[in-house]
Amino acid sequence: MPLCDDAATVISGFSNVPPQVRGHVRDLRIRWALEEIGRDYRLDLIDAMAPRSGEYRQWQPFGQVPAFDDGEIRMFESGAILLYLGEQDPHLLPTAPQARWQAITWLFAAGNSVEPALAHLNGLDLFFAQEPWAEQARPGAVKQARRKLASLQKALGERAWLAGPFSIADVLMVTVLRLLDHTDILAEFPALAAYKARGEDRPAFARALAEQLEAYVAPTGE
Amino acid sequence: MPLCDDAATVISGFSNVPPQVRGHVRDLRIRWALEEIGRDYRLDLIDAMAPRSGEYRQWQPFGQVPAFDDGEIRMFESGAILLYLGEQDPHLLPTAPQARWQAITWLFAAGNSVEPALAHLNGLDLFFAQEPWAEQARPGAVKQARRKLASLQKALGERAWLAGPFSIADVLMVTVLRLLDHTDILAEFPALAAYKARGEDRPAFARALAEQLEAYVAPTGE
Description:
Two copies of one chain form a homodimer.
Chain A (H helix, E strand, L loop, with lengths): L9 E7 L10 H10 L5 E6 L6 H6 L7 E3 L4 E3 L1 H9 L10 H30 L5 H25 L11 H10 L12 H11 L2 H13 L7
Parallel strand pairs in A: 1-2
Antiparallel strand pairs in A: 1-3, 3-4
Helix pairs in contact in A: 1-3, 1-6, 1-8, 4-5, 4-6, 6-7
């Protein structure tokens, strides 16, 4: 049970979020990676609905989660934190040079080339659905998401994971693909749907998700 | 003159792009970093307007630029390539642990927390300006861009660069801020405008930009 009250490793998360984003907040990525390597950690939960304190913005200047502190390094950005953890454990990041850089390449690709398209569509559907322009913007956003997914599926090919063994690239990419959970689009890309299911089937993912959901204090309304 | 026909380091770029994106294509980021450390490199130019070859998609699965190959490592994603170059030269990435991770944190923040908001507004203005929904979506996009810039300016504070000395984080962030060059928004954030100017004033940036612009074969129409 890596969740531990006196752990040296602390990450920030939210104590409450709207129902439609439960299970999708980005501290999940770090929880998952920490569960994969059995590292004790604890959560510093902040109120998502309240203004961030000046102290929190010293830690995370954009007021987002997660931020990270293990007593040695204080940082933020889920991709950067994954890389930091990966450098400490070959179960998260291969050490052979080409395999290492392939994993890092896909870590950046997940965050910079795939996530923006999927997050845009997610935002249109879950946060701006009442706006007339959102409906008009949607076909283009779907087309762009499909284009990214088609390229990704082709690049994945027959591999189980993006960089050979399971790595931080998969932690990030699987959580990015979950941004389309409210649609049927991923089913059009069977190899990617199977890839995402493979990630979600890992015991460490299941523990991380359960622990994230348990931390929300307010009723889900579901 | 780091551009060199028989250099071992190759990056991909476009031989032609529409006038409104000239000087903003992402190979600029890698050219700039290579110019900073005086590394010889050459360009593999592809036609932006033609479908990508299967061979190119083996190198860059999304069909974008830049991709990178130095004979030892073959990779893509500008953020990942910057990190790779940073690990080879302390002029691009500090080696002391907290400073190193601060730079890496800001490298990810530039690509994941700032660029999506600025690129969205850039896209609305430069590629979808004829669409009625783009006009309606614009106020929200401007508000989101301003929010990111306000947080970034506060985080930068009185520092010249994001992680102490100049680093790959600044290469990425300065090129990201250039996505608003078609607007007056950055002028509302004087410390960021000065930060961007400081980056653009570096001789390595000027050489990289000039070399990128020289490579475009078609008339600019400007």
